[in-house]
Amino acid sequence: MENQSTTPTIPCNRRLHIVLTILVVFLIFGAIAYRTCYQSMEAEHHVRYVGIMTVTSEKIANMIRSMEMNAMNEFDEVEKHLDSPESVIAALQSKTSLNPKVRGYFAAFEPNYFPQKGQWFEPYVHHIDSSAFEVRDVGSANHNYHKSEWYIRAKKSKDSFWSDPYYYNDGTAISGHYTTFVKPVFNEKGQLACVCGADMTFEWLAKELQIINEQIKNGALINRYVRDTEFYTVIINNSDGSCIVSPEGKDVAFTKEYLKREMEEENKGTINMDIDGVPSTVYYGPIDRVDWTVAVVVPQHVYKPLLNLTVILLVIGLLGIIVVWYLCRK
Asked: Other CB atoms closer than 10 Å to residue 177's CB: what's the count?
């Protein structure tokens, strides 16, 4: 009899066990790999955006510090020239052109400090454009600055500070959203003569914030290693959680009470929340010298590339299992 050679075959139940074993091992490996990659990406994102938030906060604080120094020089000049209304105006004009970042300087005097000027005398030297400026007396019964929050606070504190954000409207080109660096000025007798102020518009601050964001996004490290740069930065008023500066079309408001408390206590942190219907992670921290918080808003879909990679690995794994099944049948 001729010897008949036979090819060994794998029983059906063993084939099933092999395929199931491979499937379980693959799923376990995939879950571990996904979790590891997710945690690594999350840690890298946290470090990156906390760094961006810190850099932005420092840049804004430096700008504010520079404006304060220029304003103090202006206020010192006013303090040296309290002998007449004309000398005060000349003092305000003397350094206005040196700081184009400031919208205007003013000196709001106590009632009848200069009898010929009456109850309200508030000369205001403000920029018309980058090179020209004009002088106006904005004090009047319609603008009774003696009842303004910043004036009352300056008289009580006897120290300099940044005012809360406010909207000024007198129907002219200087109407707008402002914050003001305020300092009370005293005469040689130690009496309050006036409250001086340097105005900064939030329109200007929004442009500066945009420049900072573009510098960060175009930086060497971001350009070289990072593809998802869909973050944007806003500035929050700590007193009520409202957004005072943000990119156009990005209306960000923090209404959660515990977040307001964090800001009032000048803490750093992160929070997940929906902004305009988009799930986002917010990295926030205080800005030195002002009662504001800078917040970097990052849409959570920046993790989408990781999810796409997971789907690709699963598809490749399933194809591999089908090949194993086919070979087992052969």
From this structure: 16
Q: Answer yes or no: are the C-beta atoms of 150 and 127 closer than 8 Å.
A: no
**Position of tokens 């959660």?**
256
pLDDT at 109: 96
Half-sphere exposure of 188 toward its Cβ, with a 13 Å CA cutoff?
Answer: 4
177: enclosing H helix or E strand: strand 176-186
Q: Which residues are within 8 A (CB) of 314 and not within 5 positions of it... i.e. 6 or more apart?
A: 30
Beta bridge partners of 235: 245, 294
Note the pLDDT of residue 328.
Answer: 65
What single-letter amino acid sits at 31? A
Amino acid at position 166, single letter: Y
CA distance 118 to 142: 15
C-alpha 326, offset from chain centre: 58
Please, how many CA atoms are within 13 Å of residue 93, restricted to the half-sphere of its CB? Answer: 12
**What is the residue whose two structure tokens read 């400031």?**
102
**pLDDT recorded at residue 309:** 64
User: What residues of the chain score a pLDDT lower than 50?
Assistant: 1-2, 5
Phi, psi of 153 (to 5 degrees): -65, -40
pLDDT for position 1:
45
* pLDDT score recorded for residue 225: 52
